Amino acid sequence: MRYSRAMTFNVALPLAAFVILGGAIFGGQAYSESRLSGDIQRALATELKTPEPMVEVKYLQKVNHGYGVCGLYKTPSSPQGYASFFYDKVNDRVTLDVNSTRYTANCGLSALC
């Protein structure tokens, strides 16, 4: 009986703790990514003055050490398909003008290739 209890305390409990900790870390990251997509859709909908579910985002790429996101968006009313944007996570601000300094500094051609 002593060996069984020692096995439980020395192997099973640390293993269970690592599994729970790993699930919390990776689950939190997955939740954070889905929340970021929602934040971007909300910011785009506000900037474009359209309902949030109508904005579709695609090809999200973190830039500027994770402080910004470049990607493409589309609304049902856009005749030419997808358009580019830059989302500043710190200021919760969307830049739609691809010729602006904010966009070109963060989402240049090398960042999207």
- Strand count: 4
* Overall mean pLDDT: 79
Q: What would you report as the Rg, rounded to the nearest angstrom?
A: 21 Å
From N to C, what is the helix and strand string?
A: HEEEEHH
Major beta sheet summary: 4 strands, antiparallel
Helix/strand structural class: alpha+beta
What's the shape?
A: elongated
Structural summary, described in words:
This protein has 113 residues and is of the alpha+beta class. The protein has one domain. The chain has 3 helices and 4 strands; from the N terminus they run αββββαα. A 4-stranded antiparallel β-sheet has the order 1-2-3-4. A hairpin with a 4-residue loop joins strand 3 (83-88) and strand 4. The protein is elongated, with a radius of gyration of 21 Å. 12% of the residues are buried.
List the helices and strands and how they pair.
Layout: H1 2-48, E1 56-63, E2 68-74, E3 83-88, E4 93-95, H2 101-106, H3 109-112
Antiparallel strand pairs: 1-2, 2-3, 3-4
Give a short overview.
With 113 residues, the protein is α+β, with helices and mostly antiparallel strands.
Which characteristics define this entry?
113 residues, alpha+beta, 4 strands, 21% strand
